[in-house]
Amino acid sequence: MSVNSICWNCGNDIPPNLFLCQKCNKIQPPKQVDEFKLMGISETFDLDLDELEKAYLKLQQLFHPDKYSQLSDQEIKYSTLLSSMINEAYQKLNSSISRATILLKLNGFNPHSEDKSFNDPGVLEEIMDIQNEFLEAESSEQKKLSIQKLNLKISETMENLSISFKNKEYAIANKLNVKLSYLEKIRIDFKKQL
Question: Mean pLDDT in the chain?
Fold first, then answer.
């Protein structure tokens, strides 16, 4: 449960989700809130990335340190910390893998509670097959076809991840998120080799 804080400047009561005092309009010390609350967006895996970007730009416009450069050292410090938190939250929520990890934690599931090594033989075999197909491809067209297949596999995994979150099946979501991270790493490696 979040608790209100007191404005350092005027003593006004500040709700936990606000970073500016409603009475004196002074920036407040950054509070520990999850990335979704910080950005003011819904806690969902199926995030509208345009909505996320709009929220990010709006918050940066409000709290960017340049806006506070002529004010007190305390306000500069708060704006710098808050701006950094906003940047980090935006980066995490913009990544499907990080967003899923955040959602797992918010729903009481520790994504690191399971064995750190992924041991689903079916998924590992599937990943090996994808890598081998790409490595065995002799032409750039065959390599591009392998990447298209990989992109389809990533899309399918994302859809299944979305469904698992909607159904509150967090153990399944965690396994799918690990699979997605492997697939995304492979995609990066493949693009480097084109």
Answer: 91
Using CA atoms, how far apart are residues 95 and 110, in angstroms rounded to an integer?
18
- Are the C-beta atoms of 7 and 14 separated by less than 8 Å? yes
Backbone angles phi, psi at 136, to 5 degrees: -85, -10
How far apart CA 157 and CA 104 sit, in angstroms, is: 16
Residue 68 sits in which domain range? 5-94
Token readout for 134 is 């790409």
**Greatest extent of the chain over all pairs of C-alpha atoms, in Å:** 70
Same domain, 63 and 127: no
Q: What is the CATH number of the domain that holds 9?
A: 1.10.287.110
Predicted pLDDT of residue 193 = 83
Cβ-contact 66, 114 below 8 angstroms: no
- CA nearest neighbour of 178 among 61, 87, 97, 65: 97
Predicted pLDDT of residue 191: 85
Separation of alpha carbons 165 and 104, rounded Å: 9
Owner of token pair 């929220």: 55
Please give the model's pTM, rounded to 2 decimal places: 0.87
Q: What are the structure tokens assigned to 177, written together?
A: 């998120």
Q: What is the pLDDT of residues 84-133, one digit of tens each?
A: 999 999 999 999 999 999 999 999 998 865 545 567 788 889 889 999 98
In angstroms, rounded to a whole number, what is the distance separating the alpha carbons of residues 97 and 92?
Answer: 8
